[in-house]
Write a structure and sequence with these properties.
Number of strands of chain B: 13
GO molecular function, one term (chain A): cytochrome-c peroxidase activity
Order of helices and strands of chain A: HHEEEEEEEEHHEEHHHEEEEHHH
CATH superfamily of the domain at 28-130 and 252-316 in chain B: Periplasmic binding protein-like II
Helix content of chain B: 40-55%
Radius of gyration of chain B: 24 Å
Largest interface: A-B, 41 and 41 residues
Structural class of chain A: alpha+beta
Distance between the termini of chain B: 68 Å
Shape of chain B: globular
Mean pLDDT of chain B: 91
Largest sheet of chain B: 11 strands, mixed
Pfam families (chain A): DHOR
InterPro entries (chain A): Cyt_c-like_dom, Cyt_c-like_dom_sf, Cytochrome_c_Peroxidase/MauG, DHOR
Keywords (chain A): Heme, Iron, Metal-binding
CATH topology of the domain at 28-130 and 252-316 in chain B: D-Maltodextrin-Binding Protein, domain 2
Shape of chain A: globular
CATH architecture of the domain at 28-130 and 252-316 in chain B: 3-Layer(aba) Sandwich
Number of strands of chain A: 14
Oligomer: heterodimer
Strand content of chain A: 15-25%
CATH class of the domain at 28-130 and 252-316 in chain B: Alpha Beta
Number of helices of chain B: 18
Distance between the termini of chain A: 40 Å
Protein name (chain A): Thiol oxidoreductase
Structural class of chain B: alpha/beta
Helix content of chain A: 25-40%
C-alpha cells in the first residue's frame, strides 16, 4: 500500500510537471522548460549567448572566445538561420538565393562510415561565404515553377516546384554526377525531449529507422535528428552544424569541413575552436528549449480536426504521443507523455519530395517525419513560415498536398474533404 | 501592420525600379564590417540584394576594438563599408584618413538632432540610427510598490527606488559607459558620480545588455537603466514594460562610412544609399530591432508608441558633447569597476545607513549637513572634472592592460578612505551606547 502511494505521488508529480511553455506568440520558441535548477539555468543562459553570437576572424580583443570563423561558412551565427529558434525562410522568388538553408552535396557511393561520400571539391555542403582572402564557394539558387492542384470540390491550390541551381561556383563545376539536397533550417525547440525518448519506443513505430554513425562512440546508432534522421543525438547534430555552417571545429569534428583539396582549411589552430564548455552550453540550451503549449483546445473545429487527423491517416507517421524516458535537465518530466506529432522515423514521401540522395540508410525519397508541435506559431516570431524540407510550401495546405509515397492516401483524403472539414483539420494543425 | 506596410512598400519599390532578371548572377562582393546583430544584417542583405542582384554583401562581424585595429590597417582588411554603433571609432578613423566622402541627401538626412551633430560635417561618415538612453520600467511593479515613474536621472537617487533598480556593469555591457557618460554630462562630473553611486548602492548590478530589461520584464526589478531598443523589442514582443526618456538624456548615433581603400565604390555607395533610404531606415524599426532612424521621414510609419527623437521636447535632450563622449568610456569603465562594482555590498550598507539617517534627522540642520558630507564622501571619485575632460589624461586609459597598477591601487585606497570617513560621519550621529 505504501509502495502504491509512492508510485501515485510520483505519477502525480510527473503529471504536474510542464514540458510546454505559454507566453507571447512572438516569444514562443525561446523559453526554457520550467524548473531548471541554478546550474542548468546558468548553462541555458550561456548557451543562448553562444547560439546568438556572431563568430569572428581572429585574433580578437573583443571576442577571443569566438574566434575561428570559416574559412568557408554559410552564416556567422546559429541564430541567423534559426531565427528566434524557428524555421528558416525559403529563398525570395525575385533572386532565389538560398540564405537560411544548406545545400548538401555528395557523389555516388558511401563514406567509410556508411554516410554520403562528400563532393571532392566542395565538401559536404556548399558554403557561399569565405573569409576575406578566400572566395566563397558560390550560391545555391532556387527557381520555382507554379502548377495547380484541384481539390474534389473544385477549388484549386497553386503549388510551386523548386529547381535548384548554382552560380558563381568558385572552385569549378560541381559535375553532372553530384547529388544535391537543399535543406531549410528547422525549428530547434523541444529537441531535448525528443532526444530523451527511448530507442525501443521509436522503433515500435510504423516507419523505418535510419541507423547512422556516432562520432563519439564509433558505433552504428539510431538516428533521430536531421531532416533524414542522419544524426544520433543533439551533441553531434549541433557540433556538425557548427563545423558545416560556420566553420567552427570542435572535439567531435576537429577538422574544418572542406574538400581535401582546399588548402585554406588546413591552416590555423589545431585545437578545437569551440571549447567543450561552449559545446556543452549550446547543447544544454537546445536541450532545454520548451515546445509551445497548444492553443484553442475548446474550439469545436480543433476537436473535429483532431479526429480527422487520425481518420485520414496523418497520425500514422505524425505520431501524437511519445514518452520522456530520461531527461536529466528536469527529472520531474521522466515518464511524461509528450505530443510532438512525429515518430522520428523515415518514410517514403514520393517522387515529388524526393531529393534523389541517400543518407546512411535513408533513401532518395525518404524523409524523417518532422515534429508538428509549434506548427501554428510558425512565422509569428519573425521566423520563416515556409514548410517542408526546402520551404517550398507557403501554407499548410500546400505542405499537405505535397505529401506522396506512404502519405499519398492521406493527401488524397484531404483533397477529397469538404471545405469545412479541411478547415477543421487546419484549425487543429494551427492549434499545435 | 508596420511590417506589412514596409514589405508592401518594398515590393512596390522593387517591382518598379529594380526587378532583376531571373537567375541574374552576383558579380561583385562588398565587404561590410559591422557589429549589428545578425538578424538585422541578414534582413538588410536580403532586401538590398533583392534590388541589386549583381552585388553580394559579405558581413565581417567586429566589435569596436577589433574593428578599429582592422580598419586602421593600410589595406583596411578588404573592407568597403563600416557600419556600427561606435561613434568614437568613426571619429578616430576619420582622423586617420580611413574614410572617403559619401554622397548624402542632406534635405532628407539632417545629420543633426536638435543641437547635437550626428554626422560628420565633411561627409566622411553619416548617422544611420540613433539610440536613446533612459529607464525601462514595469508600470505594474511601480504601482505595486506605490512608486511613480521617475522623470529625471536624479530621481533614482531617492531612497524609495532603492532595491527596485537594476543597472548594467560598465565593463561588461557595451552600451553602458555611454549611458553613464550621459548621466555625468547631464549632472556634472562629481555630482554625477555621487548620483551613480547612490542609485547603484542598493541596485542589482547586471552583466549583459539584455539583462536589465529582462530583470524588469520578469519582475525582478521595477526599473532598470538601459539603451532603448532592448526595452522596445521587449515591449513589441508583448512584455508589460515601457521606455522612459528622462530629462536631459541623449540619443547617440550609429554611423556608416565608406573606406578609403574600397575597390567597389559604386556598390558600396549603393549599399549605403539603401541603409539611408526611407525604406532602409524603416527596416530597423521592425519588431525585433526597434532602432530609431536618423532620417525623420521614416517615422511616418513608426510603430504605435515608438518615440520620434526629432519630435521630443527640448527638455529631453542634453546637448551631448560627443567629442568627450568618445574619449571617456575607458576611464568611466575603470572608475565604475573601482567605485561601484568593487565593494558593492559594503557600499549598499553605507547608502542604506545614510538614507535611514536622513529620515531620522530630517529636521536637524547640523545632522543633515554632516549627512550631505557623508554622501559626498560615499560617492567620491578620485579623478577631477578637469582631468576627465582632458584629452591627454584620457588617453592614458585607452588600454586597460597599459594602466599602471600602482595608480589603480592608489585610487582604490582613496575611494576606500572616503568611504571610511563617510561611515564614521554617519556613525557619529548615532547616540553613544
Amino acid at each position: 500500500m505504501k509502495r502504491f502511494g509512492l508510485l501515485l505521488c510520483a505519477a502525480m508529480l510527473a503529471g504536474a510537471a510542464r514540458y510546454e511553455t505559454s507566453g507571447p506568440d512572438t516569444e514562443a520558441f525561446i523559453q526554457p522548460i520550467e524548473g531548471l535548477d541554478g546550474e542548468h539555468a546558468a548553462s541555458f543562459r550561456k548557451g543562448s549567448g553562444i547560439f546568438r553570437q556572431a563568430w569572428v576572424i581572429g585574433p580578437s580583443q573583443d571576442h577571443p572566445d569566438f574566434v575561428g570563423l570559416g574559412p568557408f561558412y554559410n552564416r556567422l551565427s546559429c541564430i541567423a538561420c534559426h531565427v528566434k529558434n524557428g524555421r528558416g525562410a525559403a529563398p525570395d522568388s525575385e533572386n532565389g538565393v538560398a540564405r537560411t538553408m544548406a545545400a548538401r552535396l555528395s557523389v555516388e557511393g558511401k563514406d567509410a562510415h556508411g554516410g554520403p561520400r562528400v563532393h571532392p571539391e566542395y565538401g559536404a555542403q556548399l558554403n557561399p561565404e569565405g573569409v576575406p582572402g578566400v572566395a566563397g564557394e558560390g550560391q545555391a539558387v532556387v527557381e520555382y515553377a507554379d502548377f495547380d492542384v484541384a481539390l474534389s470540390d473544385g477549388a484549386t491550390v497553386r503549388l510551386r516546384r523548386p529547381t535548384l541551381s548554382f552560380r558563381n561556383l568558385a572552385y569549378g563545376s560541381l559535375g553532372p554526377e553530384t547529388k544535391t539536397s537543399l535543406r531549410n533550417a528547422p525549428p530547434v525547440f523541444g529537441l531535448g525531449l525528443l532526444e530523451s525518448v527511448a530507442d525501443a519506443e521509436i522503433l515500435a513505430g510504423a516507419g523505418r529507422p535510419n541507423f547512422v554513425f556516432s562520432v563519439e562512440t564509433g558505433q552504428r546508432t539510431l538516428g533521430r535528428f536531421g531532416l533524414k534522421a542522419n544524426q544520433p543525438n543533439l551533441k553531434q547534430q549541433i557540433a556538425n552544424a557548427f563545423v558545416e555552417d560556420i566553420g567552427i571545429t570542435s572535439s567531435l569534428f576537429p577538422v574544418e569541413s572542406c574538400a581535401p583539396t582546399r588548402s585554406e582549411c588546413y591552416r590555423g589552430a589545431s585545437t578545437p575552436e569551440l571549447t567543450e564548455a561552449q559545446l556543452d552550453a549550446v547543447v544544454n540550451y537546445i536541450r532545454a528549449l520548451a515546445p509551445p503549449a497548444r492553443r484553442n483546445l475548446d474550439d469545436p473545429r480543433v476537436k473535429d480536426g483532431e479526429v480527422l487527423f487520425h481518420d485520414i491517416g496523418c497520425s500514422n507517421c505524425h505520431r501524437d504521443a511519445l514518452h520522456v524516458a530520461d531527461f536529466s535537465l528536469q527529472p520531474a518530466l521522466n515518464g511524461v507523455e509528450i505530443h510532438p506529432y512525429t515518430d522520428l522515423l523515415l518514410h517514403d514521401m514520393g517522387d515529388g519530395l524526393a531529393d534523389g540522395r541517400e543518407d546512411f540508410e535513408a533513401g532518395p525519397r525518404d524523409w524523417r517525419t518532422p515534429p508538428l508541435w509549434g506548427l501554428g506559431l510558425a512565422g509569428k516570431g519573425g521566423d520563416g513560415a515556409d514548410f517542408l524540407h526546402d520551404g517550398r510550401a507557403r501554407t499548410l495546405v500546400e505542405a499537405i498536398l505535397w505529401h506522396g509515397g506512404e502519405a499519398q492516401s492521406s493527401a488524397d483524403a484531404f483533397r477529397n474533404l469538404p471545405e469545412p472539414q479541411r478547415d477543421a483539420l487546419l484549425a487543429f494543425l494551427n492549434s499545435l | 501592420m508596420i511590417r506589412a506596410v514596409a514589405v508592401a512598400a518594398f515590393a512596390s519599390f522593387f517591382s518598379i525600379l529594380c526587378t532583376p532578371p531571373s537567375g541574374a548572377s552576383a558579380n561583385e562582393t562588398i565587404t561590410v564590417v559591422t557589429s549589428f546583430p545578425e538578424e538585422l544584417t541578414t534582413r538588410y542583405e536580403r532586401e538590398f540584394e533583392r534590388g541589386h542582384p549583381q552585388i553580394h554583401v559579405r558581413f565581417v562581424w567586429k566589435q569596436s576594438r577589433d574593428a578599429l585595429v582592422e580598419l586602421a590597417k593600410p589595406e583596411q582588411g578588404g573592407a568597403d563599408v563600416y557600419w556600427a554603433p561606435s561613434p568614437a571609432n568613426f571619429a578616430l578613423l576619420r582622423d586617420r584618413g580611413a574614410f572617403r566622402k559619401i554622397t548624402v541627401d542632406r534635405a532628407a538626412l539632417p545629420g543633426r538632432l536638435g543641437a547635437q551633430q550626428l554626422s560628420d560635417p565633411a561627409g566622411l561618415y553619416e548617422a544611420y540610427d540613433v539610440a536613446g538612453y533612459g529607464f525601462v520600467a514595469n508600470p505594474s511593479a511601480l504601482a505595486a510598490a506605490g512608486l511613480s515613474a521617475p522623470r529625471r536621472w536624479r530621481d533614482l537617487a531617492s531612497p524609495e527606488y532603492a532595491r527596485q533598480l537594476a543597472m548594467p556593469i560598465a565593463s561588461k555591457v557595451g552600451f553602458s559607459p555611454a549611458l553613464y557618460d550621459i548621466v555625468l554630462q547631464s549632472e556634472g562630473w562629481d555630482a554625477g558620480w555621487r548620483l551613480l553611486s547612490e542609485m547603484a548602492g542598493e541596485a542589482t548590478l547586471l552583466d549583459s545588455g539584455v539583462a536589465p530589461t529582462a530583470a524588469v520584464r520578469e519582475g525582478k526589478a521595477a526599473l532598470a537603466l538601459t539603451i532603448d531598443f532592448f526595452a522596445e523589442i521587449a515591449r513589441a514582443n508583448g512584455a508589460a514594460v515601457e521606455m522612459i526618456y528622462p530629462e536631459r538624456t541623449a540619443f547617440l548615433p550609429a554611423h556608416v562610412a565608406m573606406t578609403t581603400g574600397s575597390e567597389h565604390v559604386a556598390a558600396a555607395q549603393a549599399f549605403i544609399d539603401f541603409l539611408l533610404s526611407t525604406d532602409g531606415q524603416r527596416l530597423m524599426m521592425e519588431r525585433d530591432s526597434r532602432r530609431h532612424p536618423a532620417r525623420p521621414d521614416a517615422y511616418q510609419s513608426a510603430p504605435q508608441g515608438f518615440a520620434d527623437p526629432f519630435a521630443l521636447p527640448d527638455s529631453t535632450l542634453l546637448v551631448y558633447d560627443s567629442e568627450i563622449g568618445g574619449r571617456r568610456p575607458p576611464l568611466i569603465t575603470l572608475l565604475f569597476d573601482l567605485a561601484i562594482v568593487e565593494g558593492h555590498a559594503e557600499s549598499a550598507e553605507l547608502w542604506r545607513k545614510i538614507h535611514d539617517a536622513e529620515k531620522k534627522f530630517a529636521g536637524n540642520a547640523k545632522a543633515m549637513a554632516a549627512l550631505g558630507e557623508a554622501k559626498r564622501l560615499a560617492g567620491f571619485i578620485p579623478v577631477s572634472e578637469s582631468d576627465a575632460g582632458t584629452r591627454t589624461f584620457l588617453e592614458r586609459f585607452a588600454r586597460r592592460d597599459a594602466i599602471d597598477p600602482q595608480h589603480l591601487a592608489q585610487w582604490r585606497e582613496e575611494i576606500g578612505a572616503a568611504r571610511r570617513q563617510a561611515r564614521d560621519l554617519v556613525k557619529s550621529l548615532e547616540p553613544a551606547p
